[in-house]
Amino acid sequence: MTRVLFVCLGNICRSPTAEAIFRDKVNQAGREADFEIDSAGTIGEHSGHPADGRMRDHASRRGYDLTSISRKIHPADFDRYDLILAMDRENLVDLRDICPPEHRGKIRLMMNYAANLGVESVPDPYYGGSQGFERVLDLLEVACEGLLRELTP
Ligand code: 4NP
Q1: How far apart are the first and last CA of the chain?
Q2: Which residues line ligand 1 (CB under 6 A)?
């Protein structure tokens, strides 16, 4: 069992999308029993709310159902999860700041799993237009594929 936690700022756009795409790929591979998958935000601003409606619309056009409810990352998450995947460098820095030293090795940038794209971060789509949401989906589809490949024995 591998426990994977996707993290962005608000947990209403990028990390819920990563969670849904990765779950979809895991299900397609018939490997549901091998993974625990969740997402969280570094801020609690949107806690208790569903994913951003714009993000849900764009995701649903590609067949992904974003069902997660926003929550802030909790200290216990660093112990529970094996991989904690930051969407951008700001998320990475914020996570490292609050992570107990013994668990820091679990924190990575999500786009490391799509090295061929040469992109460091999944850009925050919150204040932009529809192309930003499509870009989130494009990048995360590739990175989730790479992540599952990496976690395949
Ligand atoms: P996310 O997007 O980090 O991908 O969920 C954002 C959501 C909310 C805000 C910023 C980014 N915000 O400033 O409230």
Answers
A1: 12
A2: 8-14, 45, 124, 126
